[in-house]
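User: Some background: our group keeps a shared notebook of sequences we're curious about, and every so often someone picks one and asks for a predicted structure to add to the entry. Today it's my turn. The entry only has the sequence so far, pasted here. Could you supply the structure so I can complete it?
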Amino acid sequence: MKVLFINRMLSLVRGGGETFDLEIGRHLAKLGCEVSYLSGLPLFSRGRPPVIPASFQPPPAMHTVRSPWLAWIPWDRMRGGWRVWLLDRRLFEARALKWVLPRQAEYDIVHLCEMPDWPAAAKRAGLKIPVVVRLTGPEGAKDSPGLRATDGVIASGVSVEKIRRLVRPDCENIPNSVDTDLFRPQPSDFRRRLGIGPDTCLVLYVARFQDFKNHQMLVRAFAEFLKERPDARLILVGEGHLKSWVQKDCAELGIADRVLFLGEVPFTELPALYAAVDIKVISSDYESFSFATIEAMASRLPIATTDCAWVPVLIGDSSSSSTLHPSSLRLAPGGVISPIKDPGALAQGLLRLAGNPELRKQMGEWNRRKAVAEHGWAASAAKLLALYRRLTGKES
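Assistant: Of course. Here's the predicted structure to add to the notebook entry:
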């Protein structure tokens, strides 16, 4: 099976969609697939090509097309800014289609990260091979010619039910997963390299600087947390157009010296970072899934999260938040959950974990067990390959 993944961001900024495409591709290769990627580059810079682990065998072919790169504009903070985001996507989609059409005989199937409008345009232009679209969130769950023209739709987490109800009853649930051999409790020299002592409480957030990730609420919560734990440090991994805003907030809050902005950390280096910290925090307003959460779970970390849809489910929460007081904290087997957009409550959740090493240990062990038992890539890759075979007629 020859699979072409098309992912706009793959050579620019790594997020959950990029992790899915690279990791599922690696495991599809283990099942005998020939995997290739097509991603976007800015017109006048080199981008950030992804790190391909040595275990990706045979190694994938990496292709790129250039188009204007507009995502540095803070579109999610602008009135009508979605038009900037849409223009960026449309320009890349046009270049991707121009690249694919003369080469379609080289592939059996095309796998898209988002791009729900592309299949209809591609088929009108003469694309003959099947197309699968992965929707990374339920915001893509709306009727469109593109999704009707798509041969297969996949999703995970809370997105699946909504997409099935509103758009595609045949949407396949292909769970996001984690490499539990890579992300695991392990020795780490991260603290030593940064001159951080073993007793300093380290809180980690891995996320792009986007509005819904709510870094600005997190740093306000951390400022409150520091009043009780002044030795703590917050580590922020990721890039994005709102990063400078968060850095400014840290300076105004007087906590700039307690917050480390590490930028993009290569995927293969992330496990050692997880292994060095004490608490994984999620401050998002919404998450349809969360790769960073299951990476932390596999690393045996407790989670301090907002009530952002799927993350509480991942850490074992069985409560209905609508029946609880809006300012209440609640404990789950794998962490503590606070209301969204509430820095005071998130600070209290962090304090609850920071002050109780035994509770952190119990939650971390529960998380590790769940990650190993329920979130392996092999099963997801096998399920996706079965879908590819049905759509292409290549059942063996």
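Suggested note for the entry: The first strand starts at residue 2 and ends at 7. The CA atoms of residues 182 and 251 lie 35 Å apart.
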